[in-house]
Amino acid sequence: MQIKTIGNSGQITLGKKYSGRQVIVEEIEHGVWLIKTGRFVPDSEAWLYKGDMPSKLNRAIKWAEDNPPAETNEDCVGKGYYQYKDLTQNPYILSESQKKCVL
Q: Which residues lie closer than 8 Å to 57 by C-beta, 6 or more apart?
């Protein structure tokens, strides 16, 4: 246990080992605080950590790592054709004109 003095600006120091860290300060009652180190998640990003979203993001990252960007056929942009490297993965039967849009 340490005794600290609250400065004129209302601050206390916790020591250099906590420098730059984020803390949560909970006022349990008047004059009693609970301080915990932690990570702050902005409200606009909280959805990334809820439900099954973390596993979905991990799958998306894995897919992006395994599937590097491919050249786009500009004639096919906006036509609604899916571009598959392996035609056996394509659930649709393509016409000859559509096949030119499949890489």
A: 48
Q: Do 84 and 102 meet the contact criterion of CB atoms below 8 Å apart?
A: yes
Q: Are the C-beta atoms of residues 103 and 71 closer than 8 Å to each other? A: yes
Domain ranges of the chain: 43-99
What CA–CA distance (Å, rounded) separates 85 from 4?
65
Go through the chain and tell me how many residues it has. Answer: 103
Beta-carbon contacts of residue 7 (< 8 Å; ≥ 6 apart): none
Please write the tens of the pLDDT for every residue from 71-88.
776 777 766 655 555 555
pLDDT tens readout for residues 43-69: 999 999 999 999 999 999 999 998 888
Tokens describing residue 57: 């993001």
Dist. CA 64–CA 49, nearest whole Å: 20
The residue to which tokens 């949560």 are assigned? 24
